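Why predict the complex rather than its parts? Because the way molecules touch one another can change local conformation, and only a joint prediction can capture that. The input here totals 1240 residues.
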Amino acid sequence: MLPDQGKISASQLAIMILPAILATAILSIPSLTMHYAGHDMWLSPIWGSVVGLVTIGVSLGLRSLYPGQTIIQSSLHILGWLPGKLMGLVFLIFLPHLIGMIIRSYGEFISSNALPDTPLVIIMGTMTAVCAINVRLGIEVVGRTAQVFVALLTFLLCLIFFLLIGELHPEELLPFMEDGLLPSLKGAVAPAAWFSEYTVLAFLLPFVHSKKNVVPIMLTSLVITTLAMVTTNLFCLFLLGDLTSSFGYPMMIAARYITIADFLQHIESIIIAIWIFGIFVKISVFLYIFAITAAQWLGLRSYKPLVFPLSYMCMAYTYWIVSDRPGASNLLGPSAHAYTMLILMALPTALYLIALLRNKGNGKSKHQAEPQRS
Amino acid sequence: MKPRTIRCGVACFLPLVCTLLLSGCWDRTEINDLAIVLATGIDYAEQKVQLTAQIFIPRESGSISSTGSSEGSPSGVTMTRTAEGSTIAEALNRLQRKVSREMFWGHCEVVVISEQAGKQGLREYIDFLLRYPQFREHAYVFTSGGDAKEVLALMDPLERSSAESLREMANLGLGARVTMLKLAQSIASPSGTAILSRMLVSPADSDQKRVTTPYAKGISLFKDGYYVQTALEPVSVGVLLLSNELNNFIMPVKLDQVEGTLSIRMNDVKTVLTPRIKNGEWSMGVHIKTTGEVVLNTTDLVLVNPLLRVKVEDAWLNRFKELAEDALRLARQELSADIYQFADKFRRRYPQSWKQRQQEWPAIYRDMPVEITGDVVITDTGQSIQPQGEPRQMDD
Amino acid sequence: MSQRKQSERNNEGTAIIGRPEIDEAKLRDVFSGCSDIIFHSFQTDSGLFAVCIFCVGLCDAERIERQVLRPLAEAGGGSPAVSSSQLVFTIEEASQAILDGLALLLVEDQPSGSVFALSKNIGRTTEEPAAESTVRGARDGFTESLESNVALLRMRLKIPAFKSKSLTIGKYTNTKVILAYVDGIIAPELVEEAERRLARLDIDSVLESHTIEEGIVDERFSPFPQMLATERPDVVVSNLLEGRFVILVDGTPFSLVAPITLSSMLQSPEDYYQNIYISVAIRWMRYIFYLMSLLLPSAYVAITTFHQEMIPTVLLLSIARAREEIPFPALIEALIMEVSFEALREAGVRLPKQIGSAVSIVGALIIGQAATSAGIVSAPMIIIVAMTGIASFMIPRYAASISTRLLRFPIMLLAGTLGLIGIMLGIILLVIHLSSMRSFGTPYLSPIAPTSARRLRDVWSRTLPWSKTR
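Output of the joint prediction:
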């Protein structure tokens, strides 16, 4: 009845997180996991989901200790003022880096596959502008657009999978465990970095008007994400076999391979559509988190004035991080995964453990929530 | 959003949009500025790679109000352009300089590699064709006995272009159906071998030399990415059989002590290769499973009788075995090339043993016992029950 | 609020004294120059002076004579035999009553005047709405008369919970407006919000319900309609029963229903009057064609200009052949054809009925044929534009088709600049806009987003009457 209150439902949050993780995953993960794990690449996301479980647990744990507060606010309570602010600063430096990486990889992908002659700034700038508008309008709009696009994404992705069924060779599943368990575990590092992005929960849970229990919804979301990654890996494996690691974007090759009855051909543009919608939700979610973090760190009442300047800053980051295309693929190397997991998983986990210890020391005093204004 | 904010936003956004349009749409290419390439041919002569492109000519026939029916292909629906270079990439670049429109390779559905070019090794061509963004991974690959450019220059009287006829032939399963991706996969596999259908040019029926079709004759065999030999019938049948690519084929079967022959048309031949390692002994089992229909019977046998049918099936299976053994001899003894991807099968099924004895593979392959079994059933004898066309047949 | 209510509250205004000559003089002064106001003085049977004042066009003179004048003039003294009568106490009220089409009776020694509702129907009778006809379903539609419109609704909702609140809006037109809803189904906050927004209106004239619509919607600058304008009483009733309210405006048959969502725009009442299978099939076709009317020309431009590899080879070759002689790029061609189609459509509205259909059919054919022969546009483009036109006619609500007609052009420009990426960006912007829009507090895209599984049933298929949930 009333204007935006800045609250989303738990299922909207779960739906928002799905592309926030999967959008970049379906394109990069098959190639990365194949490189390390060979034909066992489909197991890697399963091992990686353990990291997701840990991250969800930490986020929910922080929520139960400090309900209604994002991790930036609760870190002040847990660590004290100065260390808390420092930790907030770490996030503030990491987030534009991450968003810059995402936008840059988006730009590179579009530039190499669809619009080679268009200047990169147009490709990246238009997407950033659109995401900034989305974030500016509020978390409810972000949630609703996510719902619409995830429905579309799922449909298109299932369509691609369905059309590919005729071309698959299930015998590519063999050799199984050619070199034992180790390769699939090594390959699990990449999906784990993606799963550590579930930390967004720690930032967004305060905005959920929790009528239902959040835990089963989040676990369902984790299962769905893992399933999606495993399915993508399987499809690429069955179609491309050993060659999966030789291509930059195996799903694109897979989509290009579809030819039904001589008239449905070269529909990799559907993959591009999936990618664009998914990237849009992902960038919006992270930009929102960035804006909220900045607003809370600076003590502002509303994050809205910050959105456009921050998105401009992220655009600057996109040019700053790497200078050329091969460098961009380095962004997906193991060092990048370790960096992401350190900040997105290790830091919040450490924070949570410290919080637990402190609370045990203080005899379990729960801190009350301040109502959130978006 | 407040109206003033909207107005400000729109006021700022509109000039940006206009500049987008004014500066030009960078990737825009009109269809009539494209030279649509339907087929690619790769030749090799005088130490240079020659790249040929078959380009579509969009000619409007007469006025538009008549539903333009251009009279068949001989009116010049396609043209070919060739360029050479020291590498295939250089040849592509030189090729663009001969064409007034931007070459568009996104619809190139057929790649023809001449056997001469194959002798230089497929590696360069495969890398280029899989790396260059526009090429289709689903393009069919053929070899040609002569020059690839000859095959591409043909004006097919039945189809729109010779590329179309090649593609349709591949769809029909005449010869091996190999796409670019599959070719790359088979060369990248532990066997390092590939087979490709070989195309020749049939003689022209009219005095226009180019108005004719290509036809499939033989299989080109590649070992380690290099062309080694062409297999002609009847060995090529065995090659296709063992590669699980045999279809659309009618096989003559002759029984002992029976005059006349039978011809059986096969539906859906499936060959399953099962690797076995028993007590360190490596062997391969080949199982052929098919059903067939008798289309010609010049013997006196009335095939309604199931016992007779069994006899025919046995003879048929024997024929299969002969073909398979010939093909195996070609691969193992003559060429020492693992054409039928045995190595791949072993690697999948027994990865540990494969890792251990990988180095000895050529020797293992040569001497490995191969057991050929089959499950062939004659399901149909056509419209007639008794042999037809026999003189005085109704006298009995 | 309107002046009359104000004056009633404050009891301002010149009082009617019991002297008909003076009151009549005052009223003559107010209505000087209005030749359609009749002043009829007479004497009642008991010798009192009386004046009957009414507007000759709005009142039925015969009934006034019969029911008011004759009884009074009768021997023995009678009173007017009219079922509805009210009292007015000030000159202002009296003049407003006369303008509302009531007959005013001033009698000597009575410090008030009586007004009687004896109006005649000068509008048209109920007939089938021109823009919303259905194959099966009632064929009555709203007219310009507010009373008969409310009557049509009351006819279908014979419950006391159906409330109709009356207001007057418009400084110069003093148009009567009725806010109707079903008490108990609608949320009380919604009624309050509606009343609040209507009260806030400060406009000179209300000639059509759109003036009110523009004044009270949440988003003023959106091409998407946020209130449903309909002429059909059955549509209004079914919406009322779903917890919405309706605003009826005197002088126009178009009523306004709110709050609505995007899916209301794509539903036709016929869906509920026919077999469920055909309804669901046609509903899905409508969704697809709605998207087509928005995106088809852009998709064609984008694919033929940027992503030629997506087109099946055979089709590409025939398009290439068709486009060989055309001087314009695909985007310009599309813009030319779309603009001419819009012009044709607009011109068709203005044509008199007799020559309208002939000109449009033959004209379209000839123009299409001639354009292709002259080599200005290619045949595939004509097909695309025709399909787009057909698709836009499939949208049941005219207001929704306006949005696609408008938005088609920016998306075409985006498609011509950035290809499919541009179309995706356009779709994203559109979805953002729709997601942020609320119609009287209800998110515009519900039940899709925020998802409500219960209500979603009515979007992808239609609910059966016995399973309908609130």
